[in-house]
């Protein structure tokens, strides 16, 4: 009798674990739909189901200032017009429900008021305004809470947001593109195009995932880039999701020498541009462009009088205060080298083209020489993907 009882219990627990995994996997898939539009908020998905795994409501967070995932799921549940008075409902949420009044009311309260009996959470929210408060609020109301299901997947989804919450700085992703011999352009500067059209389209998607795009004044002057997301290079699904955001990523330019002028796309285009310099650039201040904000920062302590570099750490602190989660860096060898020398890069994404540019071609990085291999900056390859004829290599420099 007791053995039979144990086997029934084990079977019930196994069935519940299966339902939990299935519903959380669906919630994670929903959460990812917000990656191009919910900045600066984290991606969150929610599924509401009964003990048999029947789904009554689901949703994801689409845009900052609008309803959170839990609210969309609860609305869908109510719109179903089914009698749920006796149902033992579980809410599966990829991130701990908020417990504070921000742009919207607390989601923990909404779940409690809806009569949700059980909440399964993937990640605890590191936001100091939440950070366990949502779980505590639910448990105080008698709701059963389980946390940590599929946490690794959920943490990876919001790595940039988590970085800002924990360090008060953005997650910094350095984009590089080179030939097989590590070159980025010919000696005369010609570089269009080393990588394939497929890689260039992928860069548009990476830009769309980002809160801000950073470059240096040298690249701005030489290439005159727009640093915006070109919708025509996204597939229709991604373009639709990105347009929910109703804003381009913030464009950020480092201009320690005040060399920018108002004929550049970054200055004349209507999208917002943030310029970091030592003193205000009067050419920009007096121009008709009203989309440019200038921020003065001191030079790095190690800068020489002839070449004073912006304090990059202070710049990241400022961007963190502006709620930039994911900073995508598209600059020249000097900016890339300076960020790597200062160990301010979280991830490198390298697009590697199957070609050789030969001697005297421009190097990938202008970083400080090392005197010992013990001082090398090492990372961990997190993904390798073929895009057209190119290879997209992702390397994590912080774990």
> Separation of termini?
50 Å
Low-confidence region ranges = none
Query: Largest sheet, described in full?
Result: 9 strands, mixed
Derived from helix and strand composition plus strand pairing, the structural class reads: alpha/beta
Shape: elongated
Report the sheet-strand fraction: 15-25%
| Number of DSSP helical runs | 13
Write out the strand line-up for the largest beta sheet, numbering strands in chain order.
11-10-9-8-12-6-13-16-15
**What is the helix content?**
25-40%
Total E-strand runs: 16
Report on this model:
With 399 residues, the protein is of the alpha/beta class. The chain contains 13 helices and 16 strands. Helix 11 links the parallel strand 10 and strand 11. Helix 3 runs parallel beside helix 4.
Write the layout of secondary structure elements.
Blueprint: H1 2-32, E1 45-49, E2 55-60, H2 69-79, E3 90-95, H3 107-113, E4 118-123, H4 133-140, E5 144-147, H5 151-157, H6 159-167, E6 171-178, E7 183-185, H7 197-208, E8 212-216, H8 217-223, H9 236-243, E9 250-254, H10 265-268, E10 273-277, H11 282-285, E11 292-296, H12 312-321, E12 326-329, H13 333-341, E13 347-352, E14 362-363, E15 380-387, E16 390-396
Parallel strand pairs: 3-4, 4-5, 6-12, 6-13, 8-9, 8-12, 9-10, 10-11
Antiparallel strand pairs: 1-2, 1-3, 7-14, 13-16, 15-16
Helix pairs in contact: 3-4
What would the keywords be for this entry?
21% strand; elongated; 5-stranded mixed beta sheet; alpha/beta; 9-stranded mixed beta sheet; 399 residues
């Amino acid at each position: 009798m007791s053995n039979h009882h144990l086997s029934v219990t084990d079977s019930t627990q196994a069935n519940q674990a299966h339902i939990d995994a299935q519903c959380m996997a669906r919630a994670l898939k929903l959460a990812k739909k917000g990656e191009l539009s919910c900045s600066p908020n984290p991606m969150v998905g929610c599924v509401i189901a009964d003990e048999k795994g029947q789904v009554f409501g689901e949703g994801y967070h689409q845009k900052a200032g609008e309803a959170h995932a839990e609210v969309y799921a609860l609305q869908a549940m109510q719109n179903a017009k089914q009698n749920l008075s006796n149902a033992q409902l579980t809410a599966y949420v990829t991130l701990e429900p908020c417990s504070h009044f921000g742009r919207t009311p607390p989601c923990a309260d909404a779940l409690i008021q809806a009569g949700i009996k059980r909440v399964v959470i993937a990640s605890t929210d590191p936001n100091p305004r939440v950070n366990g408060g949502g779980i505590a609020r639910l448990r105080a109301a008698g709701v059963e809470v389980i946390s940590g299901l599929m946490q690794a997947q959920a943490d990876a989804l919001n790595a940039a947001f988590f970085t800002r919450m924990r360090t008060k700085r953005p997650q910094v992703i350095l984009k590089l593109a080179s030939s097989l011999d590590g070159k980025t352009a010919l000696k005369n500067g010609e570089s269009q195009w080393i990588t394939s059209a497929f890689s260039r389209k992928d860069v548009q998607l990476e830009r769309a995932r980002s809160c801000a795009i950073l470059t240096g004044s040298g690249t701005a002057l030489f290439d005159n880039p727009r640093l915006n997301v070109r919708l025509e290079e996204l597939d229709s699904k991604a373009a639709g999701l990105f347009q929910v955001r109703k804003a381009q990523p913030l464009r950020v330019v480092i201009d320690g020498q005040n060399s920018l002028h108002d004929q550049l796309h970054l200055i004349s285009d209507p999208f917002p541009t943030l310029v970091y310099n030592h003193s205000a650039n009067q050419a920009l201040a007096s121009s008709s462009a009203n989309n440019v904000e200038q921020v003065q920062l001191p030079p790095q302590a190690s800068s020489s009088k002839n070449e004073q570099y912006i304090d990059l750490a202070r710049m990241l602190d400022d961007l963190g205060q502006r709620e930039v989660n994911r900073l995508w860096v598209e600059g020249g060898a000097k900016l890339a080298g300076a960020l790597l020398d200062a160990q301010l890069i979280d991830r490198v994404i390298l697009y590697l083209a199957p070609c050789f540019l030969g001697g005297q071609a421009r190097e990938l990085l202008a970083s400080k020489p090392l005197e010992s291999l013990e001082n090398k900056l090492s990372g961990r390859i997190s993904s390798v993907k073929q895009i057209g004829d190119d290879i997209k290599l992702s390397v994590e420099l912080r774990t």
